[in-house]
Specification:
295 residues, 22% helix, 31% strand, 7 helices, seven-stranded mixed beta sheet, 2 domains, alpha/beta, Elongation Factor Tu (Ef-tu), domain 3, globular, Rossmann fold, single chain, six-stranded antiparallel β-barrel
Length: 295
């Protein structure tokens, strides 16, 4: 058995099954919803990039994978943000405070947790935004301040406000930011082709390229972390390769079991041992971008 297989087996041993109570529920434009779940054992072990497998309704046996957006080990809760686009997530959107859900987690390999370069660049697209918020909070607690870029073609699940944090190299008219990150003194900027005020008019990867090209930040100080739809991640991987930047990406795949048993979420990768198929749920969801083979 390879070292990677041993690591995957060890990861499965840390997954917990917990009955979680809904302690917060919010609803946003664009069929977006968030749930705050009291599940102290999972909250204690959650790391940026890990996810949970949620049973959305007692009448629906198949679970749904949900990225963890925030976690509080001290208060025993996690928060998830998702878009309702199918039966499971639509049923989940009906859940209210006081109800209970069966939650399996935390699952998956997280983003790196230490030894960051001075200028991390976090890129989140759509439902890939939540892991970036978790990672930004983790970095902030370690006195590392990232730049967070977020893109969406539906309204953002927060009311954007003009940033008061200067980002050299950023277009002067791109001022929309996430209020929570502003409160943390973590600079952020938004991108969209939907014409939202203060947002960059284009893809979030184009905004990242603009900043990398025009800022005075040395590329040796930058590393990239990203989560979002596959086309965005492909563009991020190419951007990182072009600028010679280390890059970790969190892949989004449909999952059935989410614990490595069915291999239905396998993707092609390359590495020291050559080409291979690896499971996004337990071998990932975070991979080195240079190792992922995009079709």
């Amino acid at each position: 058995m390879s070292a990677h297989a041993y690591a995957s087996r060890a990861a499965r041993g840390t997954i917990l099954l917990e009955r979680a109570r809904v302690i917060g529920a919010e609803h946003y434009p664009g069929a977006q919803h968030s749930l705050k779940l009291a599940c102290p054992a999972i909250a204690e072990r959650a790391r940026p990039g890990s996810f949970v497998h949620v049973r959305c309704d007692d009448e629906l046996p198949m679970r749904r994978p949900m990225s963890i957006m925030r976690a509080s080990p001290s208060q025993g809760w996690i928060e998830i943000l998702y878009k309702a686009h199918g039966q499971g997530s639509s049923l989940l959107a009906r859940r209210s405070v006081g109800e209970e859900l069966s939650v399996l987690g935390p699952i998956g390999r997280p983003f790196k947790l230490a030894d960051y370069r001075p200028r991390p660049l976090l890129i989140g697209g759509g439902v890939g935004i939540p892991p970036m918020l978790f990672l930004a909070e983790h970095m902030r607690a370690r006195q590392v301040t990232p730049l967070v870029l977020m893109g969406s073609e539906v309204p953002f699940p927060f009311r954007a406000r003009p940033s008061t944090l200067l980002v050299p190299g950023m277009p002067s008219d791109v001022i929309a930011a996430m209020p929570l990150l502003e409160d943390w003194a973590v600079p952020s900027r938004l991108a969209s082709q939907a014409g939202f005020p203060g947002c960059f008019d284009g893809f979030v990867t184009e905004l990242a390229r603009r900043w990398l090209t025009t800022s005075a930040v040395a590329h040796a100080e930058v590393e990239v972390f990203a989560c979002g739809p596959t086309p965005m991640l492909r563009a991020v991987a190419r951007l990182a390769e072009e600028f010679g930047l280390p890059c970790q990406i969190s892949l989004e795949e449909y999952m059935a079991c989410a614990v490595g048993g069915c291999a239905g979420c396998a993707v092609r990768v390359t590495g020291a041992e050559g080409p291979a198929m690896q499971r996004v749920c337990v071998d990932g969801p975070v991979f080195e971008a240079r190792n992922v083979v995009f079709d």
